[in-house]
């Protein structure tokens, strides 16, 4: 039987509505202080251990932010990115975009202590979300109230990993964000995390020497920034990329506060001094440029919007109730 276009549109509309309703209901099933009775010290343990590691490594918040983002973007915030490969399964963390992820040992330490206090109660997905929240606060962001109650996924497969790359256009990145119910403001705001931490040269070396296969640098790149990056990232990296020896630079080269989550990233974007192609493209579309300008002039707005976007990210595709499991070891499904 042939379906009329109007009927097809109605069916698609109903499907989208049901999907969004499911996502909203799932997010609403999370709650503040979920572990207040079952493991009262849970959030304090997470905060203490993150603080200890931050004291020795101020770049830790950047690592946790990236780890959390890569987890939530694939199969939702279910801690699948933490799972190790086994003989019969190659896990998400082995995918090329995930090879530079870090912070796993911090999550392991938190999980070990919580298992000693409250065995089988606190999920790895919540530990990662809470540790990221505490890292954001230590880096100068807001200590936002984070709903918990996530459960851990039981699937982690390299073939599922599709992360927006540093060479994506804003339009392509937006399509990827929309697939997990995030919008253009979320995209622009979450990219503000690039104010802190390091970046491997391999993620942008094409901009320096062979932009879009031209054999030339990206013409939109600031000449002083180009000269500086060429000194740190020689052309040989493009030809012989090795993640273990690849040099690193600060994500926001022009900042004096490389470990502070402030609006320096957006100032760099507006000055056309962003390191990554996707980041720089924020200056070239009207709405993202407006948002960037607003954040530079009103830093408190950025902090508030960043917290809001992080909570929204942390709600993506979560397991709750009887779904999934509570892993006893974050690196292995039970």
Spell out the blueprint of helices and strands.
Layout: H1 5-28, H2 42-56, H3 60-73, H4 104-117, H5 124-138, H6 170-178, H7 184-190, E1 198-200, H8 205-209, H9 223-232, H10 236-239, E2 248-250, H11 264-270, H12 277-281, H13 286-297, H14 299-314
Antiparallel strand pairs: 1-2
Binding site for heme b: 194
GO biological process, one term: response to oxidative stress
Pfam families: peroxidase (PF00141)
> From the structure provided, what is the oligomeric state, counting identical versus distinct chains?
single chain
Q: Strand fraction band?
A: under 5%
What does the radius of gyration come to?
21 Å
Shape: globular
Largest sheet features = 2 strands, antiparallel
| Number of domain units | 2
Order of SSEs: HHHHHHHEHHHEHHHH
Number of strands: 2
Binding site for Ca(2+) 2: 246, 257, 262
Protein name: Peroxidase
Organism: Nyssa sinensis
Keywords: Calcium, Disulfide bond, Heme, Hydrogen peroxide, Iron, Metal-binding, Oxidoreductase, Peroxidase, Secreted, Signal
Structural features, described:
By secondary structure, this protein is mostly helical. It has 2 domains: 42-163, Peroxidase, domain 1; 170-310, Peroxidase, domain 2, CATH 1.10.420. It is 47% helix and 2% strand. The protein contains 14 helices and 2 strands, in the order H-H-H-H-H-H-H-E-H-H-H-E-H-H-H-H. The chain has helices at residues 5-28, 42-56, 60-73, 104-117, 124-138, 170-178, 184-190, 205-209, 223-232, 236-239, 264-270, 277-281, 286-297, 299-314; strands at 198-200, 248-250. Strands 1-2 form a two-stranded antiparallel sheet. The longest helix is centred in the N-terminal third of the chain and has 24 residues, at 5-28. 41% of the residues are buried. Residues 1-26 have low confidence and may be disordered. Its EC number is 1.11.1.7. It is found in: Secreted. Disulfide bonds join 39-118, 72-77, 124-330, 201-233. One of its GO terms (molecular function) is metal ion binding. Its main location: secreted.
């Amino acid at each position: 039987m042939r379906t009329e276009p109007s009927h097809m549109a109605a069916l698609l509309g109903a499907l989208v509505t049901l999907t969004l309703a499911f996502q909203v209901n799932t997010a609403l099933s999370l709650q503040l202080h979920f572990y207040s009775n079952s493991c009262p010290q849970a959030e304090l343990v997470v905060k203490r251990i993150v603080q200890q590691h931050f004291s020795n490594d101020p770049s830790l918040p950047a690592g946790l932010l990236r780890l959390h983002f890569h987890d939530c973007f694939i199969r939702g915030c279910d801690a699948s990115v933490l799972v190790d490969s086994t003989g019969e399964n190659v896990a998400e963390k082995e995918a090329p975009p995930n090879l530079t992820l870090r912070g796993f040992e911090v999550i392991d330490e938190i999980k070990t202590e919580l298992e000693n206090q409250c065995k089988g109660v606190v999920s790895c997905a919540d530990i990662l979300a809470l540790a990221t929240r505490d890292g954001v606060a230590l880096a100068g962001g807001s200590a936002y109230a984070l709903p918990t109650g996530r459960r851990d996924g039981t699937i982690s497969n390299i073939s599922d990993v599709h992360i927006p790359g540093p060479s994506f256009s804003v339009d392509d990145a937006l399509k990827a964000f929309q697939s997990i119910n995030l919008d253009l403001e979320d995209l622009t705001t979450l990219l503000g995390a690039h104010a802190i931490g390091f970046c491997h040269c391999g993620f942008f070396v094409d901009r320096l020497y062979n932009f879009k296969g031209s054999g030339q640098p990206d013409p939109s790149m600031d000449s002083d920034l180009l000269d500086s990056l060429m000194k740190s990232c020689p052309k040989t990296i493009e030809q012989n990329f090795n993640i273990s020896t690849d040099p690193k630079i600060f994500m926001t080269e022009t900042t004096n506060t490389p470990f502070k989550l402030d609006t320096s990233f957006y100032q760099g974007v507006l000055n056309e001094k962003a390191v990554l192609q996707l980041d720089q493209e924020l200056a070239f579309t009207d709405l993202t440029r407006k948002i960037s300008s607003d954040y530079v002039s009103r830093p408190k707005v950025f902090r508030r919007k960043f917290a809001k976007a992080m909570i929204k990210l942390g709600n993506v595709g979560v397991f709750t109730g009887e779904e999934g499991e509570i892993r006893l070891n974050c690196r292995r499904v039970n």
